[in-house]
Design brief:
heterodimer; A: about 260 residues; mainly alpha; MetI-like fold; 10 helices; about 80% helix; disordered N terminus; B: about 250 residues; alpha/beta; Rossmann fold; 2 domains; 7 helices
Chain lengths: ~260, ~250
């Protein structure tokens, strides 16, 4: 049985760090192996640069990498937040309105079948090469898991708990805000975790296509120049951005969900 | 005297469930009068419609015919002067024990600040004094059901409806909870309508036991339990207790 009050956030992070130790050791081992193989087999840098070379590029060209990191990060967040607002909102509407369930849900499902990446050129036609197209692509990719998880979360509410609330004259709003929404929160957070990784994919693909700025642009640009060390440095930075965004959501989840959800999910 | 006036009056109650294929007659004809401050059990086999009856009294299920009156007013929906305890504790896992007990206050639109002392007193009385800030997952099943009882009492209802509240507990915990319930009942002098399928539990707790027949339900027998109060568990060893148990068993088996 968890005792959330006795474990502060700091203590939880410390525990996480200890849990991550084996993975860290293995990662370092792989990097060393990588370095050795490339050097011993004399693999050309354009095919596979060494980890040390990639690290050098990151240090030397940090200003260029940073210039492209910011727009990517910000646009990920914009697209993600838009997806949260629309996705969670739509999930709630689906749970409450028969009209939405019968009229809108099939359309949402049908839309999910469309490979979202294919929409990128269309967005460029409609909204140009700027940020709008990229944020919208991240949004359309990220919003589906939010809708489905919010809807499923609300639907998972124990009917006896709703009856209990009704026995105390609870209003429809009280039942939603104090019972159904908290019940749905763990599900919504699963949706957020999937959604943020989807948003990163959306932004990168959009940057490939719009080729204006951002790490996605830097990746295709470096590829054009056969600058594989820079290409891989950009991928590495991109991974770090993705991990940080994901970790922020996990942190938020730990702050918001302090109760034991073991049986719920 | 107030003790003798009728609190809950049920007349010619009928309840039909409409399923996709057929109509199921859950309750055919039930008449009941429960006096103020009385502890009444509704005893019957599983699936006989006794929970349905209780939920209808709580205003949580529409009825198909007849009438239910509380304090001479027809029941049309959940009432503010009623507290319900369900088979499972249905505590909100995201709320502390104190906040779970305070839920009816929020739900009824009352001032939470006015009831904090009340929560502390109820938790103290039910042996949960140190657990106000714990989460439900940290409590045993018996403790959780005690929290549910505190929640049903916090807004000071006059009528307590209990739907097999201890049926999920082990026998030892159940005995302890029954004793505790009697203590609480004696202290608060509420009217209690208690649904159970345990004959011994019904005899131990009640002033009167209404026996319900299998579906479609009617009241097949009413037994006055004239055992002295306050009652403790050793009363279950007395011949008088076992005479009541035998009488009720016979009534159930028809």
């Amino acid at each position: 049985m968890a005792q959330p009050d006795e474990n502060g956030i700091a203590a939880q992070i410390a525990t996480q760090a200890v849990n991550l130790a084996p993975a860290t050791v293995i990662s370092i081992a792989i990097l060393i192996l990588w370095q050795v193989i490339v050097v011993v087999l004399k693999i050309p840098e354009a095919i596979l640069p060494t980890p040390v070379r990639i690290f050098d590029v990151m240090v030397e060209r940090y200003d260029l990498l940073l210039t492209h990191t910011w727009p990517t990060t910000l646009q990920c967040i914009y697209g993600f937040l838009l997806a949260v607002a629309v996705g969670v909102g739509l999930g709630i509407m689906l749970a409450f309105s028969r009209l939405f369930r019968t009229g809108v849900y099939p359309l949402v499902i049908a839309f999910q079948v469309v490979p979202k990446v294919a929409l990128a050129p269309l967005f460029i036609v409609w909204f140009g090469l700027g940020m709008t197209s990229r944020v919208l692509l991240a949004f359309v990719i990220a919003f589906f898991p939010m809708v489905v998880n919010t809807f499923a979360g609300i639907q998972s509410t124990d009917p006896v708990m709703i009856r209990m609330a009704r026995s105390f004259s609870a209003s429809r709003w009280t039942i939603f805000s104090k019972i159904e929404f908290p019940t749905a929160l763990p599900y919504i957070f699963s949706g957020l975790k999937i959604g943020i990784t989807f948003a990163v994919i959306g932004i990168i693909v959009a940057e490939f296509v719009t080729a204006q700025e951002g790490l996605g642009y830097l990746i295709v640009f470096s590829e054009g120049n056969v600058d594989t060390p820079m290409l891989m440095a950009a991928i590495f930075v991109l991974s770090v951005v993705g991990v940080i965004l994901y970790a922020l959501i996990v942190l938020l989840e730990k702050i918001v969900i302090r109760w034991d959800v073991g049986q719920q999910l | 005297m107030a003790e003798n006036s009728v609190h809950v009056q049920i007349a010619a109650l009928r309840k039909i469930y409409q399923t996709r294929r057929e109509e199921i007659e859950a309750i055919r004809n039930v008449d009941m009068a429960v006096r103020e401050g009385e502890f009444v059990s509704i005893l019957g086999p599983s699936g006989c419609g006794k929970s349905t009856l209780l939920m209808a009294v709580g205003g949580l299920l529409p009825i198909s015919g007849g009438s239910i009156e509380i304090d001479r007013e027809a029941v049309t929906g959940p009432r503010r002067d009623t507290g319900v305890v369900f088979q499972s504790p249905v505590l909100m896992p995201w709320r502390t024990i104190e906040k779970n007990v305070l839920f009816p206050i929020e739900s009824l639109g009352l001032r939470v600040a006015d009831y904090r002392d009340g929560v502390a007193a109820l938790l103290e009385m039910t042996g949960l004094g140190g657990f106000a800030d714990n989460f439900p997952s940290e409590l045993s099943g018996g403790m959780q059901q005690r929290v549910a009882i505190c929640r049903a009492l916090i807004h000071n209802p006059t009528l307590l409806l209990m739907d097999e509240p201890f049926s999920a507990l082990d026998a030892i915990t159940r005995d302890a909870m029954n004793q505790e319930l009697l203590r609480i009942w004696q202290e608060f002098q509420k009217t209690v309508l208690f649904v159970t399928h345990s004959i011994r539990e019904a005899v131990f707790l009640s002033d009167r036991v209404f026996v319900m027949s299998p579906r479609p339900a009617v009241i097949s027998k009413i037994v006055d339990i004239e055992l002295p109060r306050p009652r403790t568990l050793d009363i279950e060893e007395t011949p008088a207790f076992n005479v009541y148990v035998a009488e009720l068993r016979k009534a159930i088996e028809g």
